[in-house]
TrEMBL record:
Domain of life where this protein originates: Eukaryota
Protein's UniProt name: Bidirectional sugar transporter SWEET
Lineage of origin: Eukaryota, Viridiplantae, Streptophyta, Embryophyta, Tracheophyta
This protein's record includes keyword Ubl conjugation: no
GO molecular function terms noted in the UniProt entry: sugar transmembrane transporter activity
Gene Ontology biological process terms, A to Z: protein homooligomerization
Length: 245
């Protein structure tokens, strides 16, 4: 019964994580349309890529016992594909300075992933120690992934605008972290449950900030359009006056 419940939670967690990983598609469609990364940060996607790489390796039979963590492998494998695509799109449309930042941030990710894979494969010869090592590195990466939106949270508080903190991203982050925390607790797996104990409160914080500043963001848009309309009317009036003269 416990294994079935854990599997069911894992499947639902997969669905929630898929929505979380796919949520930035709307953001990057805007980047492609405007051909600019604007004020968006690439850090959350790079850290998420590291997290997916580490936990895909963690869930494979090389580290875990058999396919006990197959839901972890399936969703993080898909996450690698999505997050890598987002990083490539960001790099393509970023400024020269932005591209440099992406390159500097991605390099440690590649080094950490390769080092973890090599050390766990050749330095340890049993599942227990491999899980302990890979899980510890993955734990740090997961906490960093859930903490990376704090950069956006700071921007929201300073600007009092939620333009660059989409609701669906915050909501799916909270939902996915809650489900994976339950999955880890049911399987008595500290390395899956612990990072989500950080993710849940941060997800709640983002939702609270969104509810607080959402109306202000909506009210600012009409004012902007009104100003533009007034400018247009002024131009037409000036033209009419000149023609009459």
């Amino acid at each position: 019964m416990g294994d079935r419940l854990r599997l069911a939670v894992g499947v639902i967690g997969n669905a929630a994580s898929l929505l979380l990983y796919a949520a930035p598609i709307l953001t990057f469609s805007r980047v492609i349309r405007k051909k600019s990364t604007e004020e968006f940060s690439c850090a959350p996607y790079i850290i998420a890529l590291l997290n997916c790489l580490l936990y895909t390796w963690y869930g494979l039979p090389v580290v875990s016992h058999g396919w006990e963590n197959f839901p972890v492998v399936s969703i993080n494998g898909l996450g690698i594909l999505l997050e890598f695509s987002f990083v490539v799109i960001y790099f393509w449309f970023a400024s020269a300075r932005g591209k440099m930042k992406v390159a500097v941030t991605v390099t440690p990710v590649i080094l950490v992933s390769c080092t973890t894979l090599i050390v766990s494969s050749f330095a340890f010869h049993d599942h227990r120690h491999r899980k302990l090592f890979v899980g510890s590195v993955g734990l740090v990466a997961s906490v960093a992934m859930y903490g990376s939106p704090l950069v956006v949270v700071k921007q929201v508080i300073l600007t009092k605008s939620v333009e660059f903190m989409p609701f669906y991203l915050s909501f799916f982050s909270f939902l996915a972290s809650s489900l994976w925390m339950a999955y880890g607790l049911l399987g008595h797996d500290l390395f899956l449950a612990a990072p989500n104990l950080v993710g849940c409160p941060l997800g709640i914080l983002q939702l609270i900030l969104y509810c607080k500043y959402r109306k202000r963001g909506i009210m600012e848009e009409p004012n902007k359009w009104d100003l533009e309309n007034n400018d247009e009317k002024s131009k037409h009036l000036q033209l009419a006056t000149n023609e009459s003269t």
